[in-house]
Amino acid sequence: MSAEEPLLRVTRGAPTAEELAALVGAIMTRTRPVAAAEPAAASVWARSGRPAAATPAAGPGAWRASGLPR
């Protein structure tokens, strides 16, 4: 492919500049390599709604301990 040859050619229809821009944006998004991102850490608010790994076991004082901060 030469430098003068277009990368994209419309063979049917007459797309507007906005339609072409949307098409190019969609193509660029699909062909861009995905960076290996680390998963974001959950916020304190999100963690507060999850069951804890060390939930208080049933027994003496469990009811009181269930309301205490961890």
UniProtKB/TrEMBL annotation:
It comes from the Bacteria. InterPro entries: ACC_epsilon. It holds the Pfam family ACC_epsilon. Residues 50-70 are annotated as: Disordered. This is Acyl-CoA carboxylase epsilon subunit. The lineage of its organism: Bacteria, Bacillati, Actinomycetota, Actinomycetes, Micromonosporales.
